[in-house]
Specification:
two-stranded antiparallel ribbon; alpha+beta; 4 helices
């Protein structure tokens, strides 16, 4: 079964929306593990800070079935599918890695291209799964995080939620 890593983030009542989403993820995907939570500035727009983390699990479901379940969790958190891209979010769940799958579909690109550009994705993933090898960069997530310009993209690790 492939290991799946999903970024979770919110900047609208983030603690309550993340608690709801994480409970749903654990119910949908038994054995889900979670990284620490991190606070960071909104990227791409002016807005409240986000709280982000990464969830990891294994599943026999195909990637599109995983996406459907993630979209249902986002909807339960109040996210509309037609919401603007660079705007506040009640919940954002993005597949970062699905095993070693490399995919270039219009609605699904894996590994997620901005994983290597966004501290709020790469940092929590490195905390959760530093030994995982990025399918196209061919380096471990831990090595990629060590090379990342963290000063330009500060994350604040939050106390255990």
């Amino acid at each position: 079964m492939p290991a799946v890593y999903v970024a979770a983030g919110s900047n609208v009542e983030p603690e309550s929306h993340l608690a709801l989403a994480l409970a749903d993820l654990a119910r949908e995907f038994p054995g889900t593990r979670f990284s620490p939570w991190y606070r960071n500035r909104a990227v791409g727009f002016d807005g409240a800070d986000f709280i982000n983390l990464v969830a990891g699990f294994t599943t026999a479901l195909p990637v599109h079935a995983v996406l459907e379940r993630l979209h249902a969790i986002e909807a339960r958190c109040g996210r509309a599918r037609d919401a603007p891209r660079w705007a506040p979010r009640t919940m954002d769940l993005d597949v970062l890695l699905y095993g070693d799958l490399v995919c270039e579909e219009p609605a699904l690109r894996l590994p997620r291209p901005d994983l290597l550009k966004r501290a709020y994705m790469l940092g929590p993933l490195a905390a959760l799964a530093p030994e995982v090898i990025h399918p196209t960069a061919q380096l471990t997530i831990g090595e990629l995080w060590q090379r990342f310009d963290r000063a330009a993209h500060p994350l604040e690790r939050l106390p255990a939620a």
